[in-house]
Write a structure and sequence with these properties.
By secondary structure, the chain is of the alpha/beta class. The chain is built from 7 helices and 15 strands.
Length: 288
């Protein structure tokens, strides 16, 4: 089947619509970051950089570290952007742009999110590192795609019952990381966690400035929920979307979180830039 121009949008130079990348610009090992400025922070640790491209909030650098070719790309904030980035990354390796047809041989990407996050358990220290073994999505992205038997329905049902989840909101979904890729990062510095992906930073995460969140009790229920020993550990805004689309598209994905805040204790990192850079260096050492 040939994909129509309105489905697969290609720029005049042959690059994919939003990311502005050509297929040859992309490595098969990819680091995603939210902040465009963090791309150069990551690539600053490369031995060499061969590609620097950007469009809107999507900035990409591709280079080499210890002989390993790696791309780092900024996604911006939220799973709406993740929907764009993951689909276009997949298109770059699994669709022939000249014929607009799917390639016969599937290429699987290794996708590592390096991001910041807030803990909701008081025993998780600020400036520590957490790898999302599981992710619970409040964003609903998974429900826009055909999917079957990839989410943990029993955990979802238990959470919905425990929190008296509003049926007018998207059903929370639970997915797990790629264990194969996760094993690359296992270390006594890394805590395994169960990450909640929210649709926003303020009301959805029960922060109150001038607007009062509709479910002020939700934070307490998040921190006290447990299912067969699994407790929710931290909040952020991209992981569930990355896990959902990676599983559907046949890619390996893992989310690495630098804990900058603890919502339970009220603490915030005194040197967030240093902590994030330490996580970047750790991940690059393991990947390369």
């Amino acid at each position: 089947m040939q994909l129509r121009p309105a489905e697969l949008i290609i720029n005049e130079d042959g690059s994919i619509y939003h990311l502005n990348l050509l297929p040859e610009d992309l490595a098969t090992t990819i680091i995603t970051v939210g902040d465009p400025d963090r791309v150069s922070q990551v690539s600053g640790h490369f031995d060499s950089v061969e590609v620097k491209k950007g469009k809107r909030e999507f900035v990409t650098h591709t280079g080499h570290k210890n002989g390993k070719r790696i791309s780092v790309i900024s996604t911006g904030i939220g799973t709406d952007n993740i929907d764009i980035v993951l689909n276009e990354l997949d298109a770059l390796v699994n669709i022939d742009f000249k014929t607009r047809t799917l390639k016969k041989n599937h290429t699987s990407l290794k996708i590592v999110r390096i991001g910041t996050s807030g803990a909701i358990q008081n025993d998780i220290p600020v400036d520590s590192f957490l790898m999302s073994e599981y992710a619970m999505g409040f964003d609903g992205l998974l429900h826009f795609y055909e999917h079957e038997n990839i989410s943990h329905v029993q955990i979802e049902d238990a959470f919905i019952a425990y929190t008296s989840w509003d049926k007018n909101k998207a059903r929370p979904y639970v997915l797990n990381y790629s264990k194969k890729l996760g094993d690359v990062f296992k270390n006594n510095r890394i805590r395994l966690g169960f990450t909640v992906t929210n649709t926003g930073f303020y009301g959805p995460q029960q922060r109150q400035l001038r607007l009062k969140p509709s479910q002020m009790e939700l934070m307490e229920k998040l921190s006290s929920f447990s299912y067969e020993g699994l407790s929710l550990t931290n909040l952020e805004m991209e992981t569930s979307g990355i896990y959902a689309l990676s599983q559907l598209l046949g890619h390996e994905a893992v989310s690495m979180n630098c804990i900058l805040a603890n919502r339970s204790t009220g603490e915030f990192s005194t040197n967030p830039a240093k902590s994030v850079d330490e996580l970047i260096k750790f991940c690059l050492e393991r990947l390369a």
